[in-house]
Amino acid sequence: xxxxxxxxxxxxxxxxxxxxxxxxxxxxxxxxxxxxxxxxxxxxxxxxxxxxxxxxxxxxxxxxxxxxxxxxxxxxxxxxxxxxxxxx
Length: 88
Fold this sequence. Notes:
By secondary structure, the protein is mainly alpha-helical. The chain is built from 5 helices and no strands.
């Protein structure tokens, strides 16, 4: 996160109003919730996990065992079980 000086980016009236509440300190202004990205979207890891889980479900339907899939994907038995029996 890059630091920006409020004098450079905020209108004078807004800056004066903010200074009534906080001055000389660092203030974090979060993004609007509509523009927030979900966990893993930027890195692509979310998509990777979705594809991996779909692959696990497919292999399970093709007569794969949970234990065999756990070894193949280096995941616990319970994790594979949660993946293959999830409703999504």
